[in-house]
Amino acid sequence: MESVFGLVGKDFAIVAADSSAVHSILVHKTNEDKIMLLDSHKLMGASGETGDRAQFTEYIQKNVALYQFRNGIPLTTAAAANFTRGELATALRKNPYMVNIIMAGYDKDVGPSLYFIDYIASLHKLDKAAFGYGSYFALSMMDRHYRNDMTVEEAIDLVDKIIMEIRSRLVVAPPNFVIKIVDKDGAREYAWRESIKDAPVPAA
Amino acid sequence: MARYDRAITVFSPDGHLFQVEYALEAVRKGNAAVGVRGTDTIVLAVEKKSTPKLQDSRSVRKIVNLDNHIALACAGLKADARVLINRARIECQSHKLTVEDPVTVEYITRYIAGLQQKYTQSGGVRPFGLSTLIIGFDPYTSVPSLYQTDPSGTFSAWKANATGRNSNSIREFLEKNYKETSGQETVKLAMRALLEVVESGGKNLEVAVMTKDHGLHQLEEAEIDAIVAEIEAEKAAAEAAKKAPPKET
């Protein structure tokens, strides 16, 4: 039910995730932010078991911060991705984290990069990746439309096309999505795509 | 194995913990460190003993970040400092992970002091040979704080303090000259206090300034030299003023 996907552009990377928090047949909220800012130039979009997702991503974020204080320089995206995979791998045969992760980052020497890390600790460096039922549609759309060196406008256009496919073709489609971007100026929220907004409660 | 749990820090007949007092001696031999708290700025200044010509001075940082809003300087055994600083940095992140809030200055000071105390009451270990000066702004109240810990594990808050070599003379100077300051005035007060015992010049001082909005800023040698020049000019002007008065009637 949860969808997370991402792609690498000319000198940026984008990660998009749905924002529904679901428990059995009840939708708790439609504006859950599943893409965490690890540090100034890294994003981590995660899907999976809600408790594991929050716990694991916060744990990674604090360890990334600790590395920076200990060593005076931030982790590279590759190092952070490998560290994350290592933590998943260590826990796998004891108490696995049911979390799928798409990590995007920008390094000055390497440029933008994207890493696919699934819950059984596979790690792949890719230009485009997706998780969840939405991945069937996301990967097909990206296979058809993705090109190297897309501009931000072209990439967002593709992301919107993907969101449209997910909304129209997936039976229990999440209504709202959040899009975050990372480039040389840092990691930040780019936009929300909301088709359902919480109605304000009328005053008594 | 039974031999290694004999305590090293034991009471003397007249109630002293000699190992702790010897640790304080080690602190007294360490480099001078000064901390001054202003209304919106907190400054740490540490003496830099002459750097060997071939040494890369950037690898010897005496004032370190524990978190975005907390910094620490110390006097004493630098290797012991590395261990304490590492534990403190982990605790800062761990606190954020468990309670979703950055540490207050008092919390992390209490943690470091608690750690130092543990090593005065455990088997087979010696106390940490250092005193620390911890500065920072509390996360939501933005109150500036300066704390000091020592090898015995005691800690207290200060408006201004010094530790290490000649700390008594520096503290006397601060007691005489302390007043509520802000911004650049706080920096100058800290540097003036340290310059009482240290040869002046950017090469001999390491100075770091913490503000609420910009976190910790380590001053470059050039910046330090500029402020030292200002201080010397002010001193000279004050001397001249003292000699001039007889002309005024």
UniProtKB/TrEMBL annotation, chain A:
Its main location: cytoplasm. GO terms for biological process: proteasomal protein catabolic process. One of its GO terms (cellular component) is nucleus. It is found in: Cytoplasm; Nucleus. PROSITE patterns: PROTEASOME_BETA_1 (PS00854), PROTEASOME_BETA_2 (PS51476). InterPro entries: Ntn_hydrolases_N (IPR029055), Proteasome_alpha (IPR050115), Proteasome_beta2 (IPR035206), Proteasome_bsu_CS (IPR016050), Proteasome_sua/b (IPR001353), Proteasome_suB-type (IPR023333). Component of the proteasome, a multicatalytic proteinase complex which is characterized by its ability to cleave peptides with Arg, Phe, Tyr, Leu, and Glu adjacent to the leaving group at neutral or slightly basic pH. The proteasome has an ATP-dependent proteolytic activity. Non-catalytic component of the proteasome, a multicatalytic proteinase complex which is characterized by its ability to cleave peptides with Arg, Phe, Tyr, Leu, and Glu adjacent to the leaving group at neutral or slightly basic pH. The proteasome has an ATP-dependent proteolytic activity. Belongs to the peptidase T1B family. This is Proteasome subunit beta. It comes from Fraxinus pennsylvanica.
From TrEMBL, chain B:
SMART domains: Proteasome_A_N. GO terms for cellular component: cytoplasm; nucleus; proteasome core complex, alpha-subunit complex. Signal peptide: none annotated. The keyword Nucleus applies. GO terms for biological process: ubiquitin-dependent protein catabolic process. The 20S proteasome core is composed of 28 subunits that are arranged in four stacked rings, resulting in a barrel-shaped structure. The two end rings are each formed by seven alpha subunits, and the two central rings are each formed by seven beta subunits. Belongs to the peptidase T1A family. The proteasome is a multicatalytic proteinase complex which is characterized by its ability to cleave peptides with Arg, Phe, Tyr, Leu, and Glu adjacent to the leaving group at neutral or slightly basic pH. This is Proteasome subunit alpha type. It comes from Olea europaea subsp. europaea.
